[in-house]
Amino acid sequence: MRRYFSMLVLALLAATAVAVPAQAHAELKSSSPASGAALDTPPQQIELTFSGVISLPDGDAVTITGPDGAKWPVTQAHAVDKTITATVDSAAAKAGAHTLAWRAQSDDGDVITGTFTFTMNVAAQTSSEAPTSSVTMSAPVSNAPPSTTSSESGGVPAWLWIVVVLIVLVGVILLVRRRKT
Prior knowledge:
Elements: H1 2-19, E1 28-32, E2 38-39, E3 45-50, E4 54-55, E5 62-65, E6 74-80, E7 83-88, E8 96-106, E9 111-120, H2 146-149, H3 158-180
Parallel strand pairs: 2-9
Antiparallel strand pairs: 1-3, 3-7, 4-8, 5-8, 6-7, 8-9
């Protein structure tokens, strides 16, 4: 009996060891503009692609800070499946390094964050007529569109199904062996 209990404990440990990677948060896989990119023209849109399904968190999902510390206006942020897209006012771009900070909500509800930089080789506006007051904080981002929120089922995690199957399998093995004796 002790041997069967040991097998059950080992099977459960193996199941949880396999299931741990499945619980990982989504990670940023690619972006446009890319991290470290040197751009000749300012981007009109930001696109962030993640390893898992994400949604927009409360507050700003994307902020871009220029070399002078001024933030670009970011509007129309949307999350669809694994991608966040946002429209930016590229008129605020200046030559130099820009920092893009992002926030996303993983499918499990946790908020993940990150930053990267890209460089503008040429400023977007070279005329001195551009009003400096046009640079404003990015607008608050609303929650994900209804099409993405309905995909969150809140179902049973995969690791739980693996544990249940292993327990049933060990139970069947124990019953078969017990009937043989």
